[in-house]
Amino acid sequence: MEIYCPECEWAPPSSAQWTCECGHSWHTFDTQGQCPECGTVWRETQCHECHAWSPHHDWYHDLPPVDVDAITESNEGAPTE
Fold this sequence. Notes:
Number of strands: 4
Number of helices: 1
Order of helices and strands: EEEEH
Largest sheet: 2 strands, antiparallel
Strand order of the largest sheet: 1-2
Radius of gyration: 14 Å
Distance between the termini: 34 Å
């Protein structure tokens, strides 16, 4: 899978770390943008090279386009356990 910044095309090495608001650091692309510590899903990811913020799903360049807002809206009325 090709993962790189949609602005500058920087490809994050496996050693790259992002830090969540909860203070946990991890490689965000190992979990598709979800913090493994607190469960926060980061819809945008900041590039370490150009510092631009982009939608997380835009970093995956060999996947079909995803309408995150439509998915979120369709799940709002879903039953919870």
